[in-house]
Design brief:
heterodimer; A: alpha/beta; Rossmann fold; six-stranded mixed β-sheet; 9 strands; B: 14 helices
Chain lengths: ~250, ~290
């Protein structure tokens, strides 16, 4: 896959909010085709909100999200684990097979060839032998691997990951990170929300430092300076109950 | 011979027992997947609310044309859908949480329904509406229940994948462009249909029992959705059989007997089911090596 065919995302003065309080405030910039970007920032900085906005789970209050080279339903999206119902009675195989949604739709059956693909994806994330396990019996890391198998099967050119390594041990993190890097190597556009400063600094080429507003966006080494990080902490405030109307042009 | 009289005699001898059995079997099979998804979506109480909500609609049908199956069915379906949509909308647009808004709707519905039935009918009519009369199912009622069961199973077969995805990971479904909202609404409509179908047989107060109790019990017997649906159907069928026979031999009211049979199986499931019951927790005394 060539980088110039990879999808890009352009944000145009974007504001996303909950009950009129902005979680992402007048953000502009773009995720370039084939780029691999970390979104970093304090809790409540709007990182997950931005991903949800791109996927289309929440609508912009103002501004625009322009996807280029990819349809909205052709995004590989890994939600935060807490957004999923892990007590739901489902097998690992079923979770991974959800990744075939675009190919199988809601009606057609999953044939032997596709079952082979599901098993290959589970093997790629180290879950061979777990096919029939109920997801409620998995550890956090194993469950995350199953969701990565689903992403593999979705085979999308734009992949958005929301805190993929939270509460995941070092070995699983390392293996999943290698998988993400291989996606980047194949020319896919990858955006991931991360909390681990070291992983961002050492492994992710681009970073968007976000504190509701853009603090800095570009090559990681230039973005993740002490001065910028201090500014991100300073900029970030909790919702103000009596906040005044924003006067910036929409 | 005694066993034959006990188990088969009543059904062979009496047409009303056969019809009651037919109605209950159809309800059990159709209600099984409905109940399982209600439980999985943490909406068991919501089923109860909707069952009460159909009461004023059915009562208005009764007010207009007496015990007309058609009028009461149309009224019940309309009222059920109205409450499902209305309570959901109020919960989304006001600070009132969904459970509170549903409780409000159901209390008002119950009061309204009892009031309307009492205006025109006697206490007997009221009892019929509230507790049903499974031993007096006529052919049209049986056809209605059978038709609703057919529609339910076919529709669920179509939206099954959507429903599962919507329960487990709504964000994913939305990200692949799946119509989660549509699946949810269709599911609510099927819930209402099943409640209306069952209310002729078991009454508005009891019909949820045959839907939710077997599903809640099935959770102790299987760890997958299809397994729970099958277990739930079997439990519903057994409860219907046991309830009908007990009510026949001991001359007890039928719908409470069926619900109590389902309740007894539920208690048994909690005590001795395969997954997560008291027995399975107690027996798992020694851990495995790996």
């Amino acid at each position: 896959m060539l980088k110039r065919n990879a999808p890009s995302i352009r944000l145009d003065n974007l504001t996303l909010s909950y009950r009129r309080h902005p979680a992402v405030h007048h953000l502009s910039g773009s995720f370039e085709p084939g780029s691999f970007t970390a979104i970093f920032g304090p809790n409540g900085a709007g990182k997950s909100t931005l991903l949800k906005g791109i996927v289309g789970l929440i609508k912009p209050d103002s501004g625009r999200i322009a996807l280029d080279g990819v349809g909205r339903s052709d995004i590989g999206y890994l939600p935060q684990q807490s957004a999923l119902d892990r007590s739901f009675p489902m097998r690992v195989l079923d979770v991974a097979a959800m990744g075939l949604w675009r190919k199988a739709g809601i009606f057609s059956s999953i044939g032997r060839r596709q079952l082979g693909a599901v098993e290959a994806a589970l093997a790629a994330v180290g879950l061979t032998g777990f096919e029939d396990r109920i997801i409620g019996t998995l550890s956090g890391g194993q469950f995350q691997r199953a969701l990565f198998a689903r992403l593999l099967l979705q085979d999308t050119r734009l992949i958005l990951l929301d805190e993929p390594f939270t509460a995941i041990d070092a070995r699983t993190t390392e293996e999943l990170l290698a998988l993400i890097q291989s996606w980047h190597g194949e020319g896919r556009t990858v955006v991931t929300v991360l909390h681990d400063l070291d992983i961002v600094r050492e492994r992710i080429p681009e970073t968007l430092l976000l504190a509701r507003e853009k603090v800095a966006w570009g090559p990681t080494a230039e973005v993740m300076t002490d001065a910028n990080l201090a500014r991100a902490r300073h900029l970030h405030e909790a919702f103000e109950d009596n906040a005044e109307l924003c006067e910036m042009p929409a | 011979m005694a066993l034959y009289d006990l188990l088969f005699g009543p059904f062979i001898e009496f047409g009303f027992m056969r019809r009651a059995l037919m109605g209950c079997l159809a309800l059990s099979i159709s209600g099984a997947p409905i109940g399982v998804f209600l439980v999985l979506r943490r909406m068991s109480l919501m089923g109860d609310v909707m069952a009460h909500a159909i009461l004023p609609g059915a009562a208005i049908g009764f007010l207009l044309s007496g015990f007309s199956l058609f009028a009461m069915t149309v009224g019940g379906v309309a009222a059920g859908l109205l409450v499902a949509l209305g309570a959901g909308a109020i919960a989304r647009t006001t600070p009132l949480r969904e459970d509170a808004s549903f409780a409000a709707f159901y209390l008002v519905s119950l009061g309204l329904g009892v009031m309307i039935v009492s205006i025109k009918g006697s206490n007997i009519d009221l009892l019929h509406v509230l507790f049903g009369n499974v031993l007096a199912l006529d052919d049209p009622s049986i056809y209605l229940i059978g038709g609703i069961a057919t529609v339910t199973l076919l529709s669920l077969a179509l939206i099954y994948r959507l429903l599962v995805a919507e329960c487990f990971d709504p964000g994913f479904l939305k990200s692949v462009g799946g119509a989660g909202g549509l699946a949810h609404f269709l599911f609510l409509a099927l819930v209402v249909l099943n409640l209306v179908g069952g209310f002729n047989a078991l009454g508005t107060l009891m019909v949820v029992g045959l839907i939710v109790l077997p599903a809640a019990s099935a959770r102790f017997w299987s760890e997958t959705v299809p397994g729970q649906i099958v277990a739930s159907a079997i439990i519903g069928i057994v409860s219907s059989l046991v309830g009908l026979l007990v009510s026949y031999h001991a001359e007890l009211p039928t719908s409470p007997a069926i619900i109590l049979a389902a309740g007894a199986i539920h208690a048994l499931s909690i005590l001795a089911g395969r997954h997560g019951s008291f027995a399975s927790q107690a027996l798992r005394a020694r851990h495995l090596r790996g």
